[in-house]
Fold S-acyl fatty acid synthase thioesterase, medium chain.
Amino acid sequence: VFLGMEKVVTRPYKRPDALCRLICFPWSGGGTFQLAQWGKLFSSSVEVFIVTFPGRESRLKEPFAEDVTTIVNEITSALLEELQEKPFAFFGHSFGSYISFAVALHLKEKYGLEPIHLFLSGGHAPSSEGFHLLKSIPIRETKDEDVLAYIKVTGGALPELLQNEDFKKQLILTVREDCRVLQTLSFEKSERNIPFSCDITCFNGSEDTPHDIEAWHDLTTGDTSFYKLPGGHFYLLEPSNEIILTKHITRCIENADL
């Protein structure tokens, strides 16, 4: 089991005495390395775990996931023991925000476990119109150059890296596959059922395409708050924003009744 966990989840800075674990879910095509650096920015009360999705980075030789359920089950079985041990929170950006939501939902429904806080960034609420539009993109028919244009517009890769043909091909494939996987995420909000009771915080870049986030209000009985930070879709890579994010997340965790 432990080997399985090491493959799916890394813990760059071990903090066995931390009050809380922050599980970070990266964006499509990367993010593990950048989020791993967060471990240094948090105080000793927070231990950072980073999820690595199949088909990229250290798991490049593995096939991409079939669907969201496969990813959710894999992450859950890798982390379940840890999550039962002490309080945890989730942070997800873009693709990672949807996967973190799906994992949180599964943990709540199947194990009665819930994060103390959900931090979501650069994504729509899964019950919103914006997410339904994302699900309707004909991704199989979308041309490579259109996927590449999207990557360039959002700033999903450094221009010099896109000069490398192999890197470019792999990135296009990853974004395409992740979009296909997201389209298998089905969540219908029913009137009677509010899935979460934890607080939810949404972060977005001020220059990013607006995300449909208001629907998060209806998904928890906890508080929902919304923040815009300067920048585009990858606003969180700006060192000044990293500081704001990590400080804010730390404050929320430390103020929670742990």
